[in-house]
Design brief:
The protein is built from 13 helices and eleven strands. The protein is an alpha/beta fold and about 300 residues long. The chain has a single domain (about 5-300), classed as Indigoidine synthase domain (Indigoidine synthase fold). Strands 1, 2, 3, 4, 5, 6, 7, 8, 9, 10 and 11 form an eleven-stranded mixed β-sheet that branches. It binds pseudouridine-5'-monophosphate (PSU) and manganese (II) ion (MN). Manganese (II) ion binds next to loops.
């Protein structure tokens, strides 16, 4: 059984060596409210196209992993209430059950690599959760970055995570973390988490040279490019701290655990910031999509 269904324009670009950028779908189904989720998914694809690459949004539909989604499929994902949130552990269940499934960073990386797509843009990666010493809640995104050869462009990791432990874990796993045009590791809504980015690079060509050096060493695994949100859209870390504390306390009060934690926190933070966090989220995804396309274009030139 062939598990992948590759959309025509994506297949053609891959066959002819033209740049392609993978995009995840959990952000559409679980990360943003209707109808801004659909508007954002469309505009992100448009940004990738404008930068000279073909967008490949990825999701599981009717028992197939779709690489590249039609507008109707994007709308279905954006509207549906019962969408599975699929990571490495349950990706195969998404296929065998025939249910509608959105892919996280981890699952999108797996499918992108299988399809031959080297660059992937998202909002923020999952990481080590606060209280992980007790809950053991560490996103499968981290171990995926260690093993799957895709370059992930994200605005760092959400400050609702334990960022120092997330960076330690990435280092342990051998995942390079590149601050793009910045010395600081960004914290999603904020440009500066207060932590240093382990490596700094300032142009897509520098990133491609770095990827080629990794390839020459046969290192395998992925790379995280941490791209700070544009200044005009950021919410400074100092302003986010109280909001995150509150959302975290609410999650504990409501007994939220496992897969539900990230969507719960995002929705709570949206409320607590009066919608401002959503505008920041939309701006940073577009910014990441543009950089991912520039990297893919530069990679395709060799
Ligand atoms: N960033 C967002 N919204 C999201 C996510 C990230 O702004 O919905 C999703 C991504 O798909 C990421 C996932 O892979 O959350 C991590 O979930 P978990 O912590 O359960 O692994
Ligand atoms: Mn988790």
């Amino acid at each position: 059984m062939e598990p992948l269904h590759i959309k025509d324009d994506v297949a053609e670009a891959l066959a002819t060596g033209r740049p392609v950028v993978a995009l995840e779908s959990t952000i559409v189904s679980h990360g943003m409210p209707w109808p801004r989720n659909l508007e954002t998914a469309r505009s992100v694809e448009q940004i990738v196209r404008a930068a000279g690459a073909v967008p490949a949004s990825i999701a599981v539909i009717d028992g197939k992993a779709h690489i590249g989604l039609t507008d109707a499929a994007l709308e279905q994902l954006a509207r549906a209430d019962e969408v599975l949130k699929l990571s490495r552990a349950d990706l195969a269940y998404g296929l065998s059950s025939g249910r509608l499934g959105a892919t996280t960073v981890a699952a999108t990386m797996i499918l992108a690599e299988r399809a031959g797509i080297a660059v992937f843009a998202t909002g923020g990666i999952g990481g080590v959760h606060r209280g992980a010493a007790d809950s053991f809640d560490i996103s499968a995104d981290l171990s995926e970055l260690a093993r799957t050869g895709v370059t992930v462009v994200a605005a760092g990791a959400k400050a609702l995570l334990d960022l120092p432990k997330t960076l330690e874990m990435l280092e342990t796993l051998g995942v390079p973390v590149i601050g793009y045009g910045a010395d600081a590791f960004p914290a999603f809504w904020s440009r500066d988490s207060g932590l240093a980015a382990p490596i700094r690079l300032d142009a897509p060509g520098e990133i491609v040279a770095f990827l080629q050096a990794r390839e020459a060493l046969g290192l395998g695994g992925g790379v995280l490019v941490a791209n700070p949100v544009p200044e005009e859209a950021e919410i400074p870390a100092g302003e986010m701290a109280g909001v995150i504390e509150q959302a975290h306390a609410d999650a504990i009060r409501d007994g939220v655990s496992g897969k539900a934690v990230t969507p719960y926190m995002l929705a709570r933070i949206l409320d607590l910031t009066g919608g401002r966090s959503l505008e920041t989220n939309i701006a940073l995804i577009g910014n990441n999509a543009r950089l991912a396309a520039e990297i893919a274009v530069s990679l395709a030139r060799g």
